[in-house]
Amino acid sequence: MKQRHLRYAIAAQVVMMIMMTMLMSSVWTAKDVYIITSMAIVIMVCVWHAIVPAIYFAKGSEMADAADTVVALALGTAYIIAHVIFACVIATRVGIDLSPFCPNCQ
């Protein structure tokens, strides 16, 4: 049990070091934004997986299952929206015509 907590602590410190290094950069490329967004979503999933057992033991399995479903849908939706936005931004930077998908766009 202690080894698992030690691994989580080490992984959290590595993620924090990477995030701090990237945040100190004055110029961000699209790849940097993609990496930071993906890391933020992964961190949110990890935090949620740390919270679910507490809900399970405090409120029971039905409440934990319902909460897990809601959060899974929310995080999944955030993941898909982030990737769609990122794809649109990259497409406009590269010069791909998005008018078939968005008639009101320029």
Characterize the structure shown.
This protein has 106 residues and is mostly helical. The protein has helices at 2-23, 30-59, 61-94. Helix 2 runs antiparallel to helix 3 (61-94). The longest helix is centred in the C-terminal third of the chain and has 34 residues, at 61-94. The radius of gyration is 19 Å and the shape is flat. The termini are far apart. The model has no long low-confidence stretch (mean pLDDT 77).
Taken as a percent bin, the fraction of beta residues is: under 5%
The tally of helices reads: 3
Secondary structural class: mainly alpha
What are the segments in which pLDDT stays under 50 over at least 5 consecutive residues? none
Beta strands, count: 0
Order of helices and strands: HHH
Mean pLDDT: 77
